[in-house]
Amino acid sequence: MSPLLANIALSVLDEHLHEPWRPGGAMSTAYLRSRRRVHGQPRWRVVRYADDFVVLVHGQQAHVEALREDVAEVLQPLGLRLSESKTQVVHMSDGFDFLGFHIRWKRKRGTNTWHVYTFIADRPIRSLKSKIRALTFRKSQQDPGTVLIRLNQIMRGWANYFRHAACKRTLSSLSHFVWWRVMQWLRRLHRWTWTDVHRRFTTSTGQWKPIAMGGTELFNLAAVPVTRYRYRGNTIPTPWTLHNHAPTAGTVESPVR
Predict the structure, then answer these.
(1) One-letter-per-residue 3-state SS of 31-56
(2) What is the dihedral of CA 101, 107, 113, 118, to 10 degrees?
(3) Which of 53, 83, 103, 105 could form a disulfide with 253 if both were Cys (CB 3.0 to 4.6 A apart)?
(4) DSSP secondary-structure letter at 119?
(5) What does the alpha-carbon distance between residue 199 and residue 152 come to, in Å, rounded to a whole number?
(6) pTM for the whole thing?
């Protein structure tokens, strides 16, 4: 119910912030937006998902501060307020976290060009590691096959959500972390030596085989194909039109950035 109620209540905020973009508005055409830039006036867009939203502003910090106060005034009649702990004003070069991702403007390695990159934020990575540690606790006596099934479910769902970020190195690092956690747990559980491990999990040529127990093979995060998000602007399919409905997506206790 919470996301539904948030979308109903915060449609007022959507319409307010998108009003200048509608036909006849102050930012409705490329020419008008260019004029605002020349005269030092701000431009903005809002991205919202349920109760979490970000306002992206092209302008000065004073413009952002003023827009934050404007947003607070729009929310007040609804009985909503901005969360002081979550509401931040940051520069894109410092980056911000949104829906588990860290979005940041930075220079492309080896070039002098700057791009907006989407990475996995630190908090989801710590959360995943905590779940893996809990399942591979050194004194755990659970069935290895059952543990591998649960680990695979967690990692597969996590990777499918984050695979559109710039995360190939992160996935490779996490895969290494999971392998060691599981292997150390299995060694303690079965009292294996490293000689036993090599005999069970390497081929005759010395290559490592995937960890498999009870007919279940450990999911390899490093093998997940990464397809980075590409900006699609207004080409994203939607059943709504801008004239009749504000863009949907986001409760309040949410950050304005």
Answers:
(1) HHHHHHHHCCCCEEEEEEECCEEEEE
(2) -10
(3) 83
(4) E
(5) 24
(6) 0.80
Six token digits for residue 154: 């967690």
CA–CA separation, 189 vs 182, rounded Å? Answer: 10
Q: Are strands 114-120 and 101-107 parallel, antiparallel or unpaired?
A: antiparallel
The DSSP bridge partners found for residue 257 are: none
Half-sphere exposure of 109 (CA within 13 A, CB side): 1
Tokens for 146, please give them.
Answer: 């059952």
Length of the chain: 257
Helical residues (DSSP H) of the chain, grouped into ranges: 2-18, 30-38, 61-75, 122-135, 144-162, 168-190, 194-201
pLDDT digits (tens, 9 = 90+) for 214-252: 889 999 999 999 987 666 666 666 665 554 444 433 333
Structure tokens at 84: 């002081």
Helical (H) or strand (E) element with 27: none
Positive or negative, the Cα torsion across 17, 23, 29, 31?
Answer: negative
Q: Which two tokens stand for residue 217?
A: 């093979």
**How crowded is residue 64: how many other Cβ atoms within 10 Å of its Cβ?**
19
In the block, which residue shows the tokens 């863009």? 247
pLDDT in tens, 20-73: 999 999 999 999 999 999 999 999 999 999 889 999 999 999 999 999 999 999
